[in-house]
Input
Amino acid sequence: MKRYIWLFSVGFIISVCFGCVWLDRRVELADNITATPAIIEDLYIPPRKDFRIVVISDLNSQYGSTEYEPEVKQAIALIPQWQPDLVLCSGDMIAGQKASLTKKQIQSMWAAFDRHVAAPLRDYGIPFAFTIGNHDGSGAIKDRTLIFEQERDLARRYWHREQQQLGLDFVDRANFPFYYSFQQDGIFFLVWDASTQNISKQQLAWVKQTLNTSAAQQTTTRIAIGHLPLYPIAAAKDKPGEYLADGSQLRSLLEQNQVELYVSGHHHAYYPGKIGELKLLHAGALGQGARQLIDSDLLPTQTITVLDLDVTTSQLAYTTYDAKTWELISLNQLPTSIPSYDGEILRDDM
Output
């Protein structure tokens, strides 16, 4: 009887060990699969125009996490298939904005971002631009003090090390990485710090000055990028503080300076819209926490967008994918408009 018990015990231990090895191997294989572009053999590739941008946003997981969702890893691996001229991230690349996070934890998050996102893009040789999100280095102020000063300092250090490898033709980088401007193939890009609801007076003066420079005025297309949108478009974010204060005045400023498009994130919902003369690309989240649009029955989903620009006519074409199924998201699935305090945001094709 003891011999049978002994044999059973040994067999059980071997099976458990084998199971652990098999599970580890399975995880390893899963990681390899998500890093292989060829897994989506029938991925739809839209026809190219003059300039192509792949737009990603809100990549982060839970506070302090150094892991990224499989959809993020897979999307980064697929980017070469679109052959973009630029990859643009509208913020929240890491999972900060928590006072208890240590310097080491924040540095580990930036190291993980570099490993999973920035390094592959460098290897592909694709230029990369970004705006700082509230989880990257929030500019929130309380009692005239930066609440997340350490996070902003570490974000600044990381990006100062990396700026020469971004492949960008900078026009003004004096305040990089928080606000700066650059040109790519004759297109002017202005990046402002919209990590909170307020654009500071100092930054606003810089925006006005920058948009009036010859570098901006001599281009046919101008694009602005910030993390918070001008208006709310997600039901869960329809409250002050979750979108830019003075959105109407900011929109007017961009319109007066012939800015064609404002790209934002933060609401974790995809919606290509327009209000007045300004087009708005609300980039959906690629990481956790996809949200539902206001007045929409469409289920929340992680997304990535390919934006094609015709420089001569300034026409924009959006191709957006469900990052789980890699099926296209049709404009007809989205609400024809979203109400705002400043009038309706019309869907781009309306």
Summary: Residues 1-34 form one domain.
